[in-house]
User: Fold this.
Amino acid sequence: MILQPVMDGLVNGAIIGLGAIGVTLTYSILRFANFAHGELLSWGAYLALTISAALGAMLPALGTPIGPFSFGWSVPIAMAGSILATAALTLATDWLLFERLRRSGAATIILVMASFGAALALRNLIEFAYTSSPQYFTNALQISREILPGLRATPDQMLVVGLGVVLVIAVHLVLTRSAAGRAMRAVSENPQLAALVGIDARGVIRMVWILGAGLAAIGGIMSGVVVQIRPTMGHDLLLPLFAAAILGGIGSVPGAMLAGLMVGLAEAFTVQIIGAEWRAAVSFVILVAVLLLRPQGIFGKAMA
Amino acid sequence: MDLLIYAAFFLTMALTYAVICLGLNLQWGQTGLFNVGIAGFVAVGAYVSALLTTPAIDGRLGGFGLPILIGWLGGGLAAGVLCFLLGALTLRLRADYLAIATFGAAVVIQLALLNLEGVTGGPFGIGFIPRPFGILQSHANLFTLANLGVMLATVLLSYLVLEHLVRSPWGRVLRALREDETAARALGKNPVTYRLQAFAIGGFFMGLGGAAQAHFIGFIAPDNYLPILTFQVWTMLIVGGSGNMRGAILGAVLVWAIWALSGSAVSALFPPEAQARAASLQIVMIGVALCAVLLLRPRGLLGEAGTLRARRPALFSKASLSKGTHSKGSKTNA
Assistant:
C-alpha cells in the first residue's frame, strides 16, 4: 500500500525524465525554453502507433506479444521508425522556424514564443489527423506481478523503468566520453569560444535536436504502452518536464533523470494522499520551491 | 438594425479582449516580459469579480452582491497581485523562467477552478453574474448599446492611463531596460523593480478585462480559460503591433473578428461530426500564422512608434546579450 505509489511514480518519472533530458539539452545549448518539446512525445507516440498498426496489418505475426510484455515486435520496430521520424520532424521545425530566428538574431524570448506557436500547431495537427479519442498500442491486458511484498508491477512498467535507466546512462556516457558530447558541452559552456576552436555549432545543434527528439519519442511511446495515447499527452507533460529540467539543474542529464523520477514520485504520492485531481499542481509547487530555494537545481551548476 | 446590434455585441466582446491585450502590451510590448499564463490571470479577474458581485448562494463561498465597479476593480487587483507574486519569484532569474512560471500558474488556476467547488462552482461555473445596466434588460437594443458604451469607456480609460504611463519617465525606463539593460543599470535604475511594477500593472488590466468579459456573458466556467485564450491574446498583440497601444486595440478587434468569422464558417461549412477536426485545423493555421508573423513581420500592423531603433533584429540581439549578463550577475549574488 505504501510501496505501490513508488512503482507508479518511478514509471511516470522515467517518462518525465526522458522528456526532461531533451528540454535540458535544448535549454543549455540552444538557450531557450522549448514549449514545443512536449509535443515531440505525442508525435513520437502517434508516429509509432501508425507504423506499428501498418506493420501489424501487413504481418499479423508481429502483433503477438513478446514474452511477458503486452506488445509484439511491431512496437520496437515502430519505435525505431518513430525515433527517426520524430527527429526529422524536429529538424524540419528547426529549419523552418528556429534557425531563421537564430540567424536574424532574435531574442531568447522570441524563440520561446515561436515554440509556443509551434506547440499549438503541432498539437492540433495531431488532433486533426487522429481525432481526440485515446488510442492504445494493444488491447492485451497485463496482470501485475508482486515484486516485493506490497509492490506490484506489470512487465511493461518494469521495462519502462529499466529502459529509462539504461538510456540515461547511455546519454550521459555519450556526453562525457565522446567527441560529439564534448562539442555539445563546449557549446553549452561558451558558444563563442567553442566556435573559435572550430566546433561546428550547427552540427551540435542538429545533434541536440536528434537526441532530444529520439528520447522524447521513446518517452511518448512508453507512456503510450503503460497508459494511453492522447493528443494532449505531451501538453500535459510539459510542466513536469520543465519542473524536472530546472530541478535537475539545466544542462545536467543525470540531474534531469533524477529530478524526473522525483517529480513522478511526488505526483504519485499526491494522487495517493490528496487526490488525483491535484496531480497537475505538483510540478508547479516543485517549480516554485526550486525557484525560491535553489534556482540552479540539484546539480548546482550555474545557469548561463 | 439587427446587424447593427450584432455588430455592437461583437464589438463589446472584442473590446474586453482589447483591455487584456493592452495589459499584455505593457508586459511584453513595453517591458519584454513573456507571459504564457494570460488565461489564468483573466480567469482570476473574472472569478473574483463574479464572487464579489453575485448574490449569495447556498453551498458556495462568496456572493457578496457588491456593485459591479467594485467587482471589476477587485478582479483587476487580484490578478495584479498574483502577477506581482510570480514576478517577484522569477524576474531575478533568466528571462524565460517567467514564461515557465506563468504557464504553470495558469495550469494550477485551471485546476483550482475545476476542483474548488465551494468557491468557484467547479465545472458548473458561476451564473447570474450581474450585467451593467441590468435595468435596461427589457429594452434589448438599448441594453446592448449601453454595454458597448461601458466597454468603449473602459478601453478608452485604460488606453489613456497606459499611454500616459508609457510616455512618462517611468515608461522610458522600461524601454531603456528592454533595449539596453547595462546602460539603464549604469544610470542607477533597478531592472527588477521596474519590471515587477510593469508586470503587476499589466496583470491588473488582464484581470479587469476578464472581469468585464464575465459580466457581459453573465456566466463563467473553467472551460472559458483554456490555454487557447492565452494564445488568442498573444496573436492579437503580435498582429496589431507589440509596443503600440493602439496596435493592441486594433489587433484585438481584428483577430477577434477573424476568429469569430472562421468559427462560424467552420460550423456552417462542416457537418457536426467533422467540426471538432475542422476546429483543430483552425488552431493549426493560427499557430502557423503566429510563427509566420514572427518571422516575416515581427512589428505587426502598427509597429512601435517613435523609438530610436535602426533594425529590430540588431537591437534584439543586443538586448538578449545584456539579459545574459544580467542573469549571470544575479547568480553570483544568489
